[in-house]
Design brief:
2 domains; 21 strands; about 20% helix
Length: about 350
């Protein structure tokens, strides 16, 4: 008779032990997956925050005017740019003011914050600060003289002034007069001649002169290249009571100015100044500037622009009187302020700007 060994209950503890081991292994696997996902999300969050900061700077530089800023930036300005999954606080600071040799220089920094877009619960709010150096590209009308006339210029008598030396000393001096070789610049009587660097600039043949003056006159006249603040006829001549008001005025046809003023004045025909009227800024005329009196224009004048449309325009006759036409780069910049823009310097991007 064989002895009988009792082994009841061995299978249950074994099953429990195996189950516990499986649970531990599964828990460890889930923990590893969760940790890897969080690490991956944290890295992506930092990348997203950097992209948001970079996007903030790009939006600010392109859409600065629509954000309520205008003209040349001052010492500092700031705004918040809201983007997908976050926002960027953008701050501009002037680091160097313009002079005759260099433009205004600025540091633009953006602090990007990612607030959404994560696939992980309780994800961190990622932050990143980047910066870029930029300079202010002032608006330009493509000429560099106190008075440029594509149809030539005639001056009667020696009284008055046509001067290309910059009144505000913020830019290099300009020519006094710029004209095509024919008909060029002529003066009857008097010893006074234009002054500037050079006093008279020869633009070459009519074709060379037309090409050399980089004003898109066809686009302005026929294709709405410039959106004016005031269009005449239709609009009315403004009040210039505020010294900070520099409008863009487009006149179709001829106009005799009711009063003096400032800004960018575009006239498809003749523009007439009478009495002692003054204009501060830029005048673009398709035909002539007619000065009936002792007028003063500080900034820049370009006449005879209809030559660029194939129209024959007679030489501009300044007439008699003690008139003053002086180049002023500051007045030009103010008149063209809405056409200026921030331009980034090359190799001046910092993607790890310290946040204090």
């Amino acid at each position: 008779m064989h002895a009988r060994i009792e082994r009841r209950g061995f299978a249950i503890p074994t099953a429990i032990l195996v189950s516990l081991m499986l649970v531990v292994m599964l828990t460890a696997s889930f923990t590893m997956v969760s940790t890897e996902r969080r690490v991956s999300d944290n890295a992506r969050a930092q990348t997203d925050a950097e992209a948001i900061a970079e996007g903030g700077i790009e939006h600010y530089m392109v859409e600065r005017t629509s954000m309520g800023f205008s003209g040349v930036p001052g010492a500092s300005e700031s705004t918040r740019v809201v983007l997908a999954h976050g926002y960027a606080d953008v701050v501009l600071t002037q680091v160097r003011a313009q002079n005759a040799l260099r433009p205004d220089t600025y540091l633009i920094r953006a602090h990007g914050v990612r607030t959404s877009g994560s696939s992980v619960a309780n994800a961190i709010v990622a932050e990143r600060t980047v910066a870029e150096f930029a300079w202010w590209q002032r608006g330009s009308v493509g000429a560099h003289a106190a008075w440029t006339s594509l149809s030539g210029l005639q001056k009667n008598g020696g009284a008055g002034t046509i001067d290309g030396h910059d009144m505000c000393a913020a830019s290099p001096d300009a020519a006094g007069v710029s004209v095509p070789t024919v008909p060029g610049y002529t003066q009857s009587g008097g010893a006074s001649v234009p002054t500037g660097v050079p006093p008279i600039s020869d633009l070459g043949t009519q074709t060379q002169a037309n090409d050399g003056v980089k004003v898109d006159w066809d686009g302005i006249v026929n294709h709405g290249a410039i959106t004016p603040d005031i269009a005449i006829p239709g609009g009315t001549w403004p009040s210039f009571a505020s010294p900070s008001y520099w409008p863009v005025i487009v006149v179709t046809g001829n106009i005799s100015l009711p009063t003096g003023g400032r800004g960018l004045l575009i006239v498809t025909g003749d523009v007439t100044l009478s009495g002692a009227e003054t204009w501060d800024g830029v005048i673009l005329a398709g035909d002539h500037l007619i000065s009936n009196g002792n007028n003063t224009v500080t900034g820049m004048i370009i006449t005879g622009l209809n030559e660029k449309l194939g129209m024959a325009v007679l030489p501009n006759d300044i007439g008699n009187g003690t008139k003053v036409f002086r180049y002023n780069s500051c007045s030009i910049a103010s008149a063209l302020q809405q056409y200026g823009r921030l331009e980034p310097y090359g190799n001046a991007w910092l993607d790890d700007w310290k946040t204090y």
